[in-house]
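pinned: reference chain
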Amino acid sequence: MPAAKSAVLTRIWRKNCPPLHLGLRASRSREEVFREFAERNNDPEIRKLANIFIDSDRFGSSLGPTLRTHARYLRIRRRQGAQEAARKITVKLSFLCSS
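pinned: its structure tokens
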């Protein structure tokens, strides 16, 4: 992994996730550390993020565009969830008004 990518990951994870940071510094493979991180957290979004880091490391792709694409995906999902909730509210309100 290039030094810049490693530095960015170190800065992010040192602040937010000490066990992951310690695993990366313990001379273990990054893939192994990220897989364990995904297993410890049952959140599907964290699993996707760990897979993004693993794939980026495996294929040597740049992390910046990959993370921007993932952030765009998360924003779209959040927006769609809000729109779905808004549609459900209008149906619920129509039943209240008709009663």
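why pinned: Residues 31-98 form one domain. The chain has a mean pLDDT of 80.
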